[in-house]
Design a protein that fits this description.
alpha+beta, 5 strands
Length: 182
């Protein structure tokens, strides 16, 4: 029932289900969406949300700890200990993370900030949420693939010239733009 592309609404729904602020991230640790209540987290999460990317220093530590290896091998949530920093800018709260998969392909992950241990019920809810996020990401990906193909076809038609070129330029919003041909 969620509109395609509204990953933030989905993030808020998952956060409400888990009673924890979450981020949905891609395989490169870029933030695709985040829920509300990020003000109830720590400096590390705030930096991540503001930069829409997990800071490299955290990613490096998580890689060294083997967190990503464990995350991408498991189909259950992985508990991640805080990553403290001497200047107080680290993470002070643990995380629960789960891989978001479509079949064997890892699309990304969901990260929840924990204020209390993850119960079995909440862990199950996180697993189910990962499946829902995967469906959403696949729908968004499919839509993007279709848009790319349509755009490529329009560009090809415009470059070939002929009867359909003007219509293609109009659909590309280039019909009234100056053109340079090389």
């Amino acid at each position: 029932g969620l509109p395609s592309g509204d990953l933030f609404a989905l993030a808020n729904a998952v956060a409400a289900l888990l009673d924890a602020p979450i981020t949905i991230e891609d395989r490169s640790n870029r933030v695709l969406a985040f829920s509300g209540r990020q003000d109830q987290t720590d400096r590390g999460r705030e930096e991540t949300v503001l930069g829409l990317q997990v800071p490299e220093r955290y990613s490096r530590i998580l890689t060294e700890r083997g967190v990503f290896r464990e995350l991408y091998r498991s189909d259950r949530p992985v508990i991640v200990d805080p990553v403290p920093a001497a200047d107080g800018s680290g993470t002070t709260l643990p995380r629960a993370a789960i891989a978001v998969r479509a079949g064997d392909e890892v699309l990304g992950s969901i990260w929840a900030v924990l204020h209390e241990p993850l119960s079995a019920e909440r862990a199950d809810a996180l697993c189910e949420s990962a499946k829902l996020v995967a469906l959403h990401l696949m729908r968004v990906r499919a839509g993007a693939d279709v848009q790319r193909r349509v755009r490529a076809d329009l560009v090809s038609t415009a470059l070939e010239g002929g009867a359909g070129a003007r219509e293609a330029l109009t659909r590309l919003a280039l019909a009234d733009s100056p053109v340079v041909v090389l």
